[in-house]
Amino acid sequence: MGKKGKTGRLKRKPAPRFWPIHRKEYAWAVKPSSGPHATEQCLPLSLVLRDILKMAKTRKEAKIIVAQGKVYVDGKARKQDDFPLGLMDVLSFPELDRHYRVIPSHKGLVLAPISKDEASFKLARVEDKRLLKNGRAQLNLHDGSNLSIRASEQESPQAQYETFEVLKLSLPEKQVLGRIKVKEGNCAVITGGQNIGIHGKIVEIEKAEAKRRRNALVIIKDEKGAHYQTILDFVFTIGEAAPLVSVSEATVNV
User: Fold this and answer.
1) CA separation for the pair 123, 89 (Å, rounded)
2) Do 195 and 145 meet the contact criterion of CB atoms below 8 Å apart?
3) How does DSSP assign 177-200, residue by residue?
4) Radius of gyration of the chain (CA)
5) Distance separating alpha carbons of residues 106 and 232, to the nearest angstrom
6) pLDDT at 134
7) Burial of 143 by CB count in 10 Å (0-12 exposed, 13-18 middle, 19+ buried)?
8) pTM for the structure as a whole
């Protein structure tokens, strides 16, 4: 009889390529726990503390730091050293007054140092929405969390939440502070594909009539005037006139 369920181990060779680990020095890597982000799109906490921020020399030391409740993700203390950090998550060390946001770059995912004020909110993209039986609407966000709202709030066209638009959420309460629609002229960052990490203004959005909206082509112009083409599924809006979050190249290399 075959084995059922997922494996709890991960070797270094098949680990995501953007992880800053030596592939042949040791055999095993930290496998992220099941959570808000897929293994290919996250960084486990112990890897961040040991290999990126250099706060620990071994995984054992990283476990001790995390177990003491000194590491916060999106405003909540996390005590699992394999907890996955993903796109736009906020990592905080209150005792050290150090805060970071996970952003995309040409390398994959990196940590960008941010201020305490910027660490008070996060951006979450609406991936899907559905109507519940109790008369409320549920918004499914990119980080695996859900947001429940009154269905009456969706009645007027101005109040309707659309897929792929981004919500500005307070931390840790996750109250909606603002919305950023996917439209021409707004700021966005590319989160996947060959041009991952490129950020700029949305110039054009293809009208997807004969194909899925996720595959609609989008053109983004960066600060130097260069144009990049991607699909809507890889577009993450980050502001209107100016970005709400820091998206410049991180000083903490991954």
Assistant:
1) 8
2) no
3) EEEE---TTSEEEE-SSTTTT-EE
4) 19
5) 18
6) 77
7) buried
8) 0.89
Provide the residue count of the chain.
254
Q: Output the CA torsion 123→42→109→182 (10° steps).
A: -30
Q: How far apart are CA 98 and CA 111, in angstroms?
A: 12
Amino acid at 167: L
Name the maximum alpha-carbon separation found in the chain.
59
What is the per-residue pLDDT for 151?
A: 63
Instruction: Please give the pLDDT value at position 211.
Output: 77
Q: Is 230 helix (H, G, I), strand (E, B) or coil?
A: strand
Below-50 pLDDT ranges, the chain: 157-158, 250-251, 253-254
Render the burial of 187-212: b for 16+ CB within 10 Å, e for the rest: bbbbbbeebbbbbbbbeebeeeeeee
To which residue do tokens 């003491």 refer?
68
Domains parsed from the chain with CATH numbers: 10-116 (3.10.290.10), 120-179 (2.40.50.740), 187-239 (2.30.30.30)
Residue in the structure block whose two tokens are 């109507």: 131
- 178 vs 169: CA distance, rounded Å: 7
* Number of Cβ atoms within 10 Å of the Cβ of 247: 22
The SS3 call for residue 60 is helix
- CA–CA dist 201, 23 (Å, integer): 37
Question: 225: alpha, beta or left, given left = phi > 0 and alpha = psi -120 to 50?
Answer: left
C-alpha closest to that of 29 among 13, 5, 7:
13
